[in-house]
Specification:
The protein has 88 residues and is an all-beta fold. It has a domain of 59 residues. Helix content is 0%, strand content 33%. A three-stranded antiparallel sheet has the order 1-2-5, with no helix packed on it. The mean pLDDT is 72.
């Protein structure tokens, strides 16, 4: 979907940030496109847009050795640790 944010005036050289959280679906291309515009004539319109894309990956499960000897032996108890990753 599209998110639109209206902000008050931003003077030359100032920055503003917006944080948006989403849940990533495995294997889906996730692209962030941003465009800014104002009512005034912009002397540098080439820096008014940007994009960044990444691929969402499924949660991965890492077995962790309970006794922490850094080796998973035949009779060790294991626990699963869930980790979310984004690949750039």
């Amino acid at each position: 979907g599209m998110v639109t944010c209206e902000m008050d005036e931003i003077a030359s050289g100032m920055t503003r940030s917006v944080t948006i959280s989403v849940e990533v679906v495995s294997g889906l291309n996730l692209c962030n496109f941003i465009t800014v515009a104002g009512l005034e004539i912009d002397p540098e319109p080439s820096n008014n847009s940007s994009q960044n894309c990444t691929i969402g990956t499924a949660p991965t499960f890492h077995p962790a050795d309970i006794n922490e000897d850094l080796m998973i032996d035949a009779n060790d108890l294991l626990e699963l640790l869930k980790a979310w990753e984004l690949e750039y």
